[in-house]
Amino acid sequence: MPVWAIANQKGGVGKTTTTLLLGRLLAGRGQRVLLVDLDPHASLTRAFGIPAEPPPVGTLELFDQPPKRVVDLARNTPIAGLRLLPAQAGMATLERRSATAPGLGLALDQGLAATATDYDAVLLDCPPTLGLLMVNALAAADQLIIPTQTEPLALHGMESMLRTAQMIERSRRRPLPVRILPTLFDRRTRACVDTLAVLHERHPERTWVQAVPLDTRLRDAALLAATELPTEVLQGRGVDAYRRALAWLLRESPQPAPMEPAG
What we know:
Blueprint: E1 3-6, H1 15-28, E2 33-37, H2 43-47, H3 70-73, E3 75-76, E4 82-85, H4 94-98, H5 107-113, E5 121-125, H6 132-140, E6 143-149, H7 152-172, E7 178-183, H8 190-202, H9 221-224, H10 231-234, H11 237-252
Parallel strand pairs: 1-5, 1-6, 2-4, 2-5, 6-7
Antiparallel strand pairs: 3-4
């Protein structure tokens, strides 16, 4: 069961759109897919029409003592083969709780390990800040996917994300492969073209050779979570780019590596 963390320490780069579209494209291939919303802002959860009040059961309950089971927390979505672990605003309190509850950094990893045979793939939609939730995602992930907007300022967030990934990789004692997915690309602007060239120059082995284009039809997450995508979206250049990106990620995706013994 490969676990992909979709993360960047900068907002507005397409993390939730990437999680949602990759998830439904995998489900469209007949896979059993679990989406985990790890962002207290809960954009992915809202996309599926789940209200903030009353708070749904979901990701927060994985951090209970004792933790709830993923199988009891995940819910079906309108899309066949796609399930969701919803986020709650209360997840923002986990940072304070972690000071008195050691071991919360591996809560997600342990919860997913107990459900490994239930899903073919797990996608983690991460918050844009380094904290307990992102640490949990990177500790559990078999691969980190960094969507990054093709504009100069976005490069700083991506480089910060790479440094964070290196830190977590050292502490968890197994590799954390990284794939960089350029997003919001507008070939008409020099800044986008130059930024994409910089990505390929600095990280040639990690970066997708193409880019997800700027497509206004991908702005409505609730539309992307609908049972059937409208024809103009399904056949649009944005979704088509994500199909090609998924094929690249599946080719490059490593098999989950075993834990190394502590030395």
